[in-house]
Amino acid sequence: MTQPQKGICAEPNLHAQYLLFNVVDDDSEAVRAKIARVVDVFEHFENEHYEAMVTGIVAIGPGYWTDLYPGLIPPELAPFPDMQCEDRSAPTMPCDLFIQIRADRLDICHAIGIEVMNLLRLHVELVEQVRGFRYLDGRDLNGFIYAPENPRGMRRRETAIVGEYDPDFCGGSYIHIQRYRHDLRRWFSLSPRQQEQVMGVTQEHNLESAERSASSHCERATALSPDDGMPGLIKQGMPYGDMRTQGMFFVSCAASAQPFRTMLHSQIYGNGDGDYDRWLDYSSAESGASFFAPSITFIRQQAMY
Ligand code: HEM
């Protein structure tokens, strides 16, 4: 039985450390071994600090995958989709490695980050580090509850993890990330009613808003599975920010790369009648990258070759 990485289906945490790296040497044998040790570090902290609910993800980008694991390519691993329509865009920032560290203790997140840096230091350059935090009762900084519709229980695994139908990559997950920057001054100049029109749900309880339209975020982002009407991805992103910039570090984990692409396309290009996602008038993606997070079983087996 393949063991998926814990962070893919994890329940929400209080803190996150998102790290993006490019690999700068060609010692892929050493990097394979170190990635397995990153997984060991996650496990060590999970066991040592049980109450901190530590979870991690290590994922590899399409530009580095074939160097790291030659011969075996996840069939849907492709560069981040480059989309642009009027002033809405999904800028790409391809990266070799993505690491998501999450815990209910900021000190533990930090300690794991330092261990990961020490392990990889010789081989990588750090491209980006973003610290995510839980805001109020699980809300985005725009005030709306974030990701309450994520699949629950066993549905999480079915949605986010590649199944036995792909024996080489089962237990893995297709990951997309985007760093969004909000324009909260403009957002909070809207009335509560206007905000609910934009999001398509009520702010207080996340109920479908009577004001929902074809250009509401929830309407444009919906790409539910035709089989069971469930969302095709799990959202694992968190708010980030300081006194200058605020936004959402968006992370999607899915058994297929397709749902994310379909949703993003629908948000940016709209439905052909000019109904694009109005939320994109208040938040812009500044980066985007795609990855595959192989199973722990895969990572450990490959490290032995
Ligand atoms: C700044 C970035 C974003 C913010 C702050 C945001 C916020 C929200 C909020 C508050 C909701 C309603 C509650 C919920 O179901 O989560 C929602 C729904 C949703 N969002 Fe986003 N979102 C962002 C970007 C995206 C992106 C990039 C995608 C996919 C490409 C996406 C996909 C969805 C989906 C699938 C839903 C559920 C729709 C439904 O089934 O009703 N979101 N989002």
Which strand-content bin applies to the residues? 15-25%
Q: Judging from the principal axes of the Cα atoms, what is the shape? A: globular
The major pleated sheet works out as:
5 strands, antiparallel
Count of folded domains: 1
Number of helices: 9
- End-to-end separation: 20 Å
Summarize model confidence as the mean pLDDT.
95
Quaternary structure classification: single chain
**Which value, in Å, is the CA radius of gyration?**
19 Å
Succession of helices and strands: EHEHEEEHEHEHHHEEEHEH
Tell me how many strands there are.
11
Helix content: 25-40%
Structural class: alpha+beta
Low-confidence stretches: none
Bound molecule kinds, no repeats: protoporphyrin IX containing FE
Description:
It is a single chain. Helix content is 29%, strand content 24%. The protein has helices spanning 28-48, 62-68, 106-120, 154-160, 184-187, 192-199, 217-221, 258-269, 296-303; strands at residues 15-23, 55-60, 83-85, 88-90, 97-103, 124-133, 173-182, 234-235, 238-241, 246-254, 283-293. The mean pLDDT is 95.
Q: What topology emerges from the helices and strands here?
A:
Layout: E1 15-23, H1 28-48, E2 55-60, H2 62-68, E3 83-85, E4 88-90, E5 97-103, H3 106-120, E6 124-133, H4 154-160, E7 173-182, H5 184-187, H6 192-199, H7 217-221, E8 234-235, E9 238-241, E10 246-254, H8 258-269, E11 283-293, H9 296-303
Antiparallel strand pairs: 1-5, 1-6, 2-5, 3-4, 7-10, 7-11, 8-10, 9-10
Helix pairs in contact: 1-3, 1-9
Bound molecules: protoporphyrin IX containing FE.
Protoporphyrin IX containing FE (HEM) is lined by residues 140, 142, 144-149, 178, 180, 199, 201, 206, 217-218, 221-222, 231, 248, 250, 260, 263-264, 283.
